[in-house]
Specification:
The complex is a heterodimer of chains A (279) and B (211).
Chain A lengths: L3 E2 L27 E5 L11 E3 L3 E6 L5 E5 L2 E6 L2 E6 L4 E8 L4 E9 L5 E4 L15 E8 L9 E5 L5 E4 L20 E2 L9 E2 L4 E4 L13 E7 L1 E5 L5 E2 L3 E7 L5 E5 L2 E5 L12
Chain B lengths: L1 H24 L5 H16 L3 H11 L9 H25 L36 H45 L4 H14 L3 H11 L4
Classes of the chains: A mainly beta (279), B mainly alpha (211).
Chain lengths: 279, 211
């Protein structure tokens, strides 16, 4: 993307083909800023809508410029090139290149992640023990939208307690992580995936567990964890994403359904064993 | 024979480590390089990769041309070079060449199944009655945490190695001339701080006279 020349008129009204600055003011030359995102995904690297924390390489057509920025961003570099890294807040970031005779600028629209997307990871079996009402899967975590990159972010999952009843009553109030910790460690992000968003470098181990007991028939029951993920930019303060649920449901036939953030998978007791991770 | 060869190398390594420590923890004339060095010291202490990026950003703000005193400018240039190279040396020292980015960490681990009972992943170990199963689970949790943290550190180190190395080389290229004194300063500082031969070669090439 090229930014606009904001001072292309001749300030002196005269011309100076030699470019000399003696006596006559030099004719203002045109000046443009070209931008290219550092990451190669999304494919449109000339876009000016970028994610929080995203980096963009900037080049000015005039090599003798000083760079400045307004908005939440860090700008480094000198001469004809500079690198912009968006901060942690959404909004406009304006980069200006100022030379002896011209000024040009480019405006970026910085956006934050929208609601997280979770789905079963492809290539793994569903977790299940034949004859038992249990089910689970490895989950993938994405930060939409897929129009920008959040590769420079990190994410983590907060600890929480479940509410369980019926079949799962034995698990009521257990924690999603060891009781002494308030959240997981931070996980890095990867290259943006079209149609999904920026994936976290993790496998989320999502599983109903099995409180035991004979069946079928099984006592119907549900177990629900409130789930909150957070993100941060460049090691900064954590920002919470929209809360969703991890829910496990068993019916009298022993059909188990595990759902997290809308995505779900089911198994009935007669299904074969599945072991994406060892017991 | 192997030991006889190893001994001088170890001594050499110790000398270089000492110089690295001096750059990271010693006094700096420049407030900016001092702050950058403090970030490197914090990285050494906490292994927080973002400290390396913070150090880099500080070093990038240094404009040698703004220092009007020639002697101070030369000292600032040397300090900046040393701090850039210390940053690269820390990346080299901590980057695991065998790191496999495909081996993703998990958010949590599932406790061992005991009979027909299996708790959901991540549950507090205290709920597991069987002491042996509990001990196995606690160990698995510990290893998972370590794997996740190591994955995070290695991911950032790999990225920073790719993004910061060209910046350090650019500093060398733009700040040092082909006069023998400049060439010598770069060569000697590289020798003191950089153990990675490919890195040393790249930095020396950046300073070398252009063909």
């Amino acid at each position: 993307m090229s930014g606009s020349d904001t001072n292309s008129s001749n300030p002196s009204g005269g011309t100076n083909p030699t470019g000399s600055t003696t006596g006559v003011k030099r004719k203002c030359k045109t000046c443009t800023i070209t931008s290219e995102t550092v990451v190669t995904a999304p494919a449109n690297r000339a876009r000016t809508t970028i994610g929080v924390g995203e980096e963009v390489n900037l080049t000015c057509s005039n090599s003798s410029v000083g760079w400045s920025v307004t908005g939440d961003a860090v700008l480094n570099g000198g001469g004809a090139s500079a690198t912009l890294q968006a901060g942690s807040t959404a909004g406009a970031v304006v980069v200006t290149a100022t030379g002896p005779t011209c000024t040009c600028s480019i405006t970026f629209n910085v956006i934050t992640p929208s609601d997280p997307l979770m789905q079963p990871a492809p290539g793994y079996d569903l977790k299940h023990h034949s004859g038992r009402p249990d089910c689970g899967y490895y989950g993938e975590f994405y930060l939409p939208p897929d129009t920008v990159s959040f590769k420079n972010l990190e994410v983590r999952e907060k600890n929480s307690k479940c509410v369980a009843e019926g079949f799962y009553i034995k698990f009521n109030n257990i924690t999603h992580q060891p009781a002494g910790q308030t959240e997981s460690g931070w996980f890095t992000m990867n290259d943006c995936v079209s149609g999904k968003g920026t994936p976290a470098n993790l496998d989320d181990t999502i599983y109903s567990g099995d409180p035991g007991g004979a069946g079928p028939p099984f006592e119907a029951g549900t177990m629900t964890f409130p789930i909150v993920w957070e993100y941060r930019v460049r090691g900064g303060a954590a920002t919470a994403l929209k809360q969703f649920e991890q829910k496990h449901v068993v019916d009298a036939t022993g059909k188990c359904t595990t759902a997290k953030d809308g995505a779900s998978a089911s198994r009935v007791p007669g299904d074969p064993d599945g072991n994406p991770w060892p017991d | 024979m192997g030991l006889a060869l190893a001994a001088p190398a170890a001594g050499q390594s110790s000398d270089r480590t000492t110089y690295l420590d001096k750059v990271i923890n010693g006094k700096h004339m420049s407030e900016t390089t001092a702050r950058a060095a403090a970030q490197l010291a914090e990285f050494e202490q906490k292994k927080e990769p973002h400290c390396l990026q913070a150090a880099s950003e500080l070093l990038e703000t240094i404009d040698l041309a703004k220092e009007t005193d020639a002697m101070k400018r030369l000292a600032l240039r040397r300090e900046t070079l040393e701090t850039w190279l210390a940053l690269l040396a820390l990346i080299d020292r901590n980057l695991d060449p065998n790191f496999n980015p495909q081996d993703l960490p998990s958010t949590s681990v599932a406790p061992p199944r005991v009979g027909n009972v299996a708790y959901p992943p991540g549950v507090d170990p205290s709920v597991i009655a069987d002491p042996q199963a509990r001990a196995r689970y606690e160990e698995a949790l510990k290893q998972n945490t370590q794997k996740a943290e190591n994955y995070r550190i290695q991911t950032w180190l790999k990225r920073f190695n790719e993004s910061l190395s060209p910046k350090a080389e650019r500093f060398v290229r733009m700040s040092y001339t082909t006069v023998p004194g400049d060439q010598r300063e770069v060569a000697e500082t590289v020798k003191k701080l950089i153990k990675n031969p490919q890195r040393a070669s790249a930095l020396t090439r950046a300073a070398a006279p252009k063909q």
